[in-house]
From TrEMBL:
This is Glycosyltransferase 2-like domain-containing protein. It comes from the Bacteria. One of its GO terms (biological process) is protein N-linked glycosylation. The lineage of its organism: Bacteria, Candidatus Collieribacteriota. Pfam families: Glycos_transf_2. InterPro entries: Glyco_trans_2-like (IPR001173), Nucleotide-diphossugar_trans (IPR029044). Residues 6-171 form the Glycosyltransferase 2-like domain.
Amino acid sequence: MTPKLSIVIPNYNEKENLQAGALTQVSAYLKKVPYTWEVIISDDGSTDGSRDLAEAFVKKHGGFRLLKNAHGGKASAVNAGIKAAKGEIILFTDMDQSTPLKEVERLLPYYGQGYDVVFGSRGTTRKNFPPMRQITSWGFRTLRQLFLLAHVADTQCGFKSFKASVAKEIFPKLSVLRERAVGWTVSAFDVELLFLAEKSGYKLKEVEVEWSQQDLSTGKENKMVKESIDMLKQILNVKINDLKGLYR
């Protein structure tokens, strides 16, 4: 039987979030929903023991499965999960559950209105977001809107859903999948993803969702300024690629 919803959760050094019960939270919510589902934990070559924690959880919970991938970065882990997904709609969400899974209830109704991609937005006020992150996020959003997706408020919320056929068509085209990953590098693949979906003629809907910083993990390198610069470079590359006609 084809599940209604496939939930892809990338995992890279998420030990603290797993120990805090992130997957238990996901499981508790899904026990109440009226539709069929599957959860795919897509591990990206974790080095902190979180793959073992995820595997132990999967063995005790039906509907959950684990993909053991070589390290390739977040986009690669999500892409592996999408390839393996069997559902009609695919959602990818972060392990830390900063956006709790229950917020999918805000997204799903739009598929009945003809949308192909329905994605979460954190809005402009973000709970528990450090002041420096607020500033860099504002700067990124402002500059990004000058070049791409001017009508989209938040491209970086890690809570995005797609009709399965759309996700499986668009994801393999991401340029970041051709790059060698080092650590859990934050990238602007979400920008390229939404841009490609819109350019392909699909109907997009942005929906504000509950969001509060919950990430407890310590195994992911955090270089805020470098990340911001790299992401802006990636946006420029997407714009240049588009001008060159590489997305036709």
